[in-house]
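chain below, 139 aa
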Amino acid sequence: MYSVDGLSETDSYSQWKQTLNRQYTLRSNLSYTERLTDYMQLQLGYKLSYTDSENDRKTYKKSAVSDLYDQLDESLSNEYQSGYLTQAGSVGLRYRAGKFNAMLGVDAQWADLRGDMVYPQADNLSHRYFSIGTIKYFV
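prediction:
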């Protein structure tokens, strides 16, 4: 509600939204452990994950003529598709003697994000990421 020249006015906006989302994810995890000595073992790991998603959102304004929600509001509508692939590898050494347990290792991850804006305007994006870290704990 706002006032113009002392007169009160009411502004309203009505809309209807239709949203469709689809997403699936595939994951795998491989681990390998090799005993090196009575107290030490080698651990290798590999993880793979892929996520694919589609998002379609349409927003409609109410028509003053037909009183139906049949006017597409392009500024509030979009359609987007994306894929996200990650791969991670790790290597570590575990030492265990009695109650003492220690682990030291390193892991690396590669990620690839790709996206396609389909509507209202075609556009593509592509980003690649890489990270490396260390794993360590003592008990």
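The longest strand covers residues 40-62. The CA atoms of residues 62 and 69 lie 4 Å apart.
thats it, cya
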